[in-house]
Amino acid sequence: MSIVTAELNSGNAWSAIRTGLRTTLVVFVALWLAGWSWGAAAQETDVAGTIKQLESAGKLVIEGPDSAPRLYVFADPNCIFCNRFYNMAEPLVRAGKLQLRWAMVGFLKPTSMGRSAAILSADDPLQALRANEAKFNANAEQGGIAPVQQVDPSMQALINRNFTAMQAVGGTGTPTLLYRSDKGDWAVRVGLPPKAWLNSYAGG
To answer: How crowded is residue 81: how many other Cβ atoms within 10 Å of its Cβ?
Structure first.
């Protein structure tokens, strides 16, 4: 009789353990989901704040009409994938379907900082950017304009801030894009996007 009682008690104990585990799992999942939501909200705040920083610096290279969907693009002048993005996006820009705001960084090669500085310090930064991309050497993976040999310290600091801003939103390489999601908030996309995605974003 005592053996039966012991077995029943053991069964009750295991039942209690299983119930406890289920409760713990439910609580864990609820907390994880809540944490994910907070993280998403924090990320949105960070992206919006990053955009404000980029705008306040006043050194974005802008092309395309204000009425078009906007993309912020972190780009290195020696980045072959940035060059491919430029060639993919330029027809949409020239058709008035897309606005790009380029935030130049300089980390891929020793000449990256000098080329970014050459673009941003040019009399016409947009034409300098276009020349860099039009003359891009794909075999050597380097931009088409001559780099500045002695970069002004304030310009170097600005380009470095752009790089820090890119990292802050999760950008691990170039191009890193900041775009409006379907919900209207700012989101991040790292790397060369599919052409279909870009066309869709531009309303094509």
So the answer is: 15
The answer as to whether 88 is a domain residue is yes
Q: What is the CATH number of the domain that holds 178?
A: 3.40.30.10
Q: Is residue 18 situated within a structural domain?
A: no
User: 170: phi > 0 → left, psi -120 to 50 → alpha, else beta; which?
Assistant: left
As a whole number of Å, the end-to-end CA separation of the chain is 79
pTM of the model: 0.78
Q: Which domain holds residue 132?
A: 56-201
Query: Is 66 inside any structural domain?
Result: yes
Phi first, then psi, for residue 31 (nearest 5°) are -65, -40
* Helices 112-121, 125-134: inter-axial angle, 10-degree rounding: 140
Domain count, the chain: 1
* DSSP H or E stretch at residue 179: strand 176-180
Tens of pLDDT along 84-133?
Answer: 999 999 999 999 999 999 999 999 999 999 999 999 999 999 999 999 99
What is the CB neighbour count within 10 angstroms for residue 58? 7
Nearest-angstrom CA–CA distance, 55 and 47 = 12
